[in-house]
C-alpha cells in the first residue's frame, strides 16, 4: 500500500499528548490521519486531518470510526476491544491487535500471560474481589507485605499500593485485583521494543528511572541506564521476548525491575509510545513516535541508538496549587544547555497532574544529569 | 509577557512548508498560532490554532490579521510591508521588521545596504529597466559576462541568470534588476544567525552547498562545511555582522560565496528559517524552527551546535514527470542508516518542483555523505 498518498488513512484511538507527538511525525510523512477522542479539547485535534468526538469505550463509535481507516492504532489502552475484533475480521489492520490489547488491559491476564510464556515476573495471586484477599490472609494463603494492583483501569501510580497491614486495604477499589510479592529491587528499568508488521525488530537502549530518595517518585528517566552491559543485554532480551510472545506490532514499552541479585522481572507493559521514551525525540536517531509509525505501516525501522545522552523530567503540578497554570522559571531552564520543554497545554494545574516534560541532552550523560537536577530545582508548575 | 498562556497569540504570514515546520515547535511550547495564507490548501492549515485565507500582498488583509496577534512573523518575504509598518506603529511586534523586510525584498536595495554597511559583496550595477543594461553594454559601462538578477520576486533560482552574450537577455523580465560581476568561487556557503529580541545572538555552523558537477544544481547541503576553521570563522563573522547591520530579530540566513582566494562575499539573505537549515531538525541541538520562535519571543536561544553531522538532499520532481506524485523507493531510503524523509504533501509533481527533503545524519560526516549519495540515487519523485 502507498502510505504516502491521499488514499491511505491512519486512525488513532485517543487524542491525548502521546497522540499529539505521534501526529508531528505523520505530518512529516504527509500521512492522512483521523483521531477519535472523548473530548473536543483533545490536544491531537490540531494536527490531525479529521477529528471525531466520541466515546472510546463505545462499540458502535469505535467500530464506525475504524471502518473509515486502513490502519488503526491507539495511544491509550482503554478502548472498546470488541469493536477492534470486528474491525480486524473485516480487514482493518489493528495494531496493537485486539487480542494483545485484551491481554494487556487486564493486569491479572497480563501476569498470567507472562507465566504461560516463561517470561520472568514477580510471583502473584489473582483475586476476583478485594474481599478474597482478606480471606487469603486469614487462611494463610497470602502474607503481608505485598503489592496490590487493580486488574483494570489503573494509571500513573493509581491502582497500585503496597499493603503492609490489613488497614491499608480499607480504601481500595473492591473489584478484581492481584497481590504481587514485594521484591526488593535495585533499579526500575524500561525497554521499548519496536516490531514491524514485516517482522523486523529493534530495541531501544535500556532506560533507568531514578527515584527521589525520600518521596519514592520517579524524578528522572535516564537513557542509557547506568547499568552493566550484561544487565542491559538481559533486559533487552526479556523485552524482545515479551514483544515476540505477544506477536505484537508497533511499540511495546516493557517496564522492568532489576532485583538485588540482578534478575530482570517484568513489571508491566504498554503497547504504544510511552513516557519512558519521550527523551528519544531529542536523544535518539529515531524518536519513539516515528518508530511506532514505521512499525505499524511496515516501513523499515529506524536506528534506535542515541545521538547523545538523554534525560527526561516530568513536569507535574506543584503541591498546594490548583487553578489556571503558570510555568515559573521556564526561561531559566531554556537558557540551560540542551534543555527542551514540552508543554502539554492543559489549562488547569493540580497537585501532581502531569503538565508536560523536559528533555535534557548532552554528549556526557553525567553533565546531562547535573543539568536535569538544575531543571528540577528551577521550574515550578503553579497556579496563577 | 507570558507566552505559555492562552492570552498570547503568534501570527505567521504564509502557510507553506516552512510555516508547517515552525508550527511543530509552537505546538511543543503550546503557543497559540494564527496563520494567513493565500490558499485554503496551505500545509500549515493543519497544526495552527486559527487559519485565515487571504491575500498576503493586500494591505487590509495583512493589517486586519496582524491586529489580532501579539507577535507577527513571516515564512515568506512577499507580504504587504505597508501593513507591517502600520502594525508596528500600533504596537504589534513584527519580526522581521517592516524596514528590514523592505530592504531585503528588493535585491538592488539589499546590495546597496551591503555597500552602505561595509559588508562584503560582489560589485554590481543597478538598472531600473532591463533595456538600460543593453545601453550600458553599448556605451562600455558594463561588460559580459555578468550575473543578471531580478530586483523583486525571484525565488528558487528563478530571477537569476548568467548573461554571457546579448541574446541571453532576450527572455528576461523587463523590470528593475542588477548586473553583478561574475566572480569565480570555490564554495557556496550559508550561515544562519539567530538574534533575539533581547539582543542575544548565536550562529549555526557554516553549511556548504555541494553542486552536481555537470548540472550546476545544488545536490547536498552539508553541515558542517568541509572548509578550514579560518574560513568558517570569517563566514560566521560576516553573517553575524549582517544580522547586526539589519538590527534583525529572528533568523537571518546568509548565503555566501567563498572566492578562489578565500574571500567571503554575501550573495543574498533571507530573514526567516531557510532551506539551508533543514538539517538542523535532526542534526542540531536546537532546530532552526525552534530557534526562530525562541528569538522572536525573546526566549533564551538554544545551542546551535550539531549533535551529529547532517546532510540535506532536496526532493525535487523528476524530469518528464507531471501529474499526481509518487515517491519511488522511499522505503529503500528509510532502511538506510540515519535517513529521515520529509514529504511536503504536494499532490502534483512537475519537473524540478520542490516536493520535500531528506536528512541524513551520522557521527561521521563522510559516511553521511556516502549515504546521501545512495539516497539521491535511489529515490525518485515521479508521476503515478
TrEMBL record, chains A, B:
GO biological process: 'de novo' IMP biosynthetic process
Pathway in which this enzyme or protein is active: Purine metabolism; IMP biosynthesis via de novo pathway; 5-amino-1-(5-phospho-D-ribosyl)imidazole-4-carboxylate from 5-amino-1-(5-phospho-D-ribosyl)imidazole (N5-CAIR route): step 1/2
Alphabetized UniProt keyword annotations: ATP-binding, Decarboxylase, Ligase, Lyase, Nucleotide-binding, Purine biosynthesis
Enzyme class: ligase
GO molecular function, one term: metal ion binding
Entry annotated with the keyword Transcription: no
Superkingdom classification of source: Bacteria
SUPFAM superfamilies (alphabetical): Glutathione synthetase ATP-binding domain-like (SSF56059), PreATP-grasp domain (SSF52440), Rudiment single hybrid motif (SSF51246)
GO cellular component, one term: cytosol
UniProt xrefs under PANTHER family: PHOSPHORIBOSYLAMINOIMIDAZOLE CARBOXYLASE, PURINE BIOSYNTHESIS PROTEIN 6/7, PUR6/7
Subunit: Homodimer.
Family of the protein in this entry: Belongs to the PurK/PurT family.
Protein known as: N5-carboxyaminoimidazole ribonucleotide synthase
Originating species: Olleya aquimaris
Gene encoding the protein: purK
Amino acid at each position: 500500500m502507498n502510505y504516502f498518498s491521499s488514499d491511505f488513512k491512519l486512525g488513532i484511538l485517543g487524542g491525548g499528548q502521546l497522540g499529539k507527538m505521534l501526529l508531528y511525525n505523520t505530518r512529516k510523512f504527509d500521512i492522512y490521519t483521523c483521531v477519535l477522542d472523548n473530548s473536543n479539547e483533545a490536544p491531537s485535534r490540531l494536527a490531525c486531518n479529521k477529528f471525531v468526538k466520541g466515546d472510546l469505550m463505545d462499540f458502535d463509535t469505535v467500530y464506525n470510526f475504524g471502518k473509515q481507516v486502513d490502519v488503526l492504532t491507539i495511544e491509550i489502552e482503554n478502548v472498546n476491544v470488541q469493536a477492534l475484533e470486528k474491525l480486524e475480521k473485516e480487514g482493518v489492520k489493528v495494531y496493537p491487535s485486539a487480542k494483545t490489547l485484551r491481554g494487556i488491559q487486564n493486569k491479572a491476564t497480563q501476569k498470567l500471560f507472562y507465566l504461560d510464556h516463561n517470561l520472568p515476573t514477580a510471583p502473584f495471586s489473582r483475586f476476583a474481589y478485594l474481599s478474597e484477599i482478606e480471606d487469603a490472609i486469614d487462611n494463610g494463603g497470602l502474607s503481608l507485605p505485598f503489592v496490590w494492583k487493580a486488574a483494570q483501569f489503573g494509571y500513573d501510580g493509581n491502582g497500585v499500593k503496597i499493603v503492609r497491614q490489613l488497614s491499608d486495604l480499607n480504601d481500595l477499589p473492591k473489584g478484581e485485583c492481584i497481590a504481587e510479592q514485594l521484591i526488593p529491587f535495585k533499579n526500575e528499568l524500561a525497554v521499548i521494543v519496536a516490531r514491524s508488521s514485516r517482522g523486523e525488530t529493534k530495541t531501544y537502549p535500556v532506560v533507568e528511572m531514578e527515584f527521589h530518595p525520600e518521596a519514592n517518585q520517579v524524578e528522572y528517566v535516564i537513557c542509557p541506564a547506568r547499568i552493566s552491559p550484561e544487565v542491559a543485554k538481559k533486559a533487552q532480551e526479556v523485552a524482545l521476548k515479551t514483544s515476540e510472545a505477544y506477536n505484537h506490532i508497533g511499540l511495546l514499552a516493557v517496564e522492568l525491575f532489576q532485583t538485588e541479585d540482578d534478575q530482570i522481572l517484568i513489571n508491566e507493559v504498554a503497547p504504544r509510545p510511552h513516557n519512558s521514551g519521550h527523551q528519544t525525540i531529542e536523544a535518539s536517531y529515531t524518536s519513539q513516535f516515528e518508530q511506532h509509525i514505521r512499525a505499524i505501516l511496515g516501513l523499515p525501522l529506524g536506528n534506535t541508538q542515541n545521538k547523545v545522552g538523554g534525560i527526561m523530567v516530568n513536569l507535574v503540578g506543584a503541591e498546594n496549587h490548583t487553578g489556571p497554570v503558570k510555568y515559573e522559571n521556564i526561561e531559566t531552564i531554556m537558557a540551560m544547555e540542551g534543555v527542551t520543554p514540552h508543554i502539554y497545554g492543559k489549562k488547569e494545574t493540580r497537585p501532581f497532574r502531569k503538565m508536560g516534560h523536559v528533555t535534557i541532552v548532552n554528549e556526557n550523560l553525567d553533565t546531562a544529569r547535573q543539568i536535569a537536577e538544575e531543571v528540577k530545582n528551577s521550574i515550578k508548575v503553579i497556579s496563577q
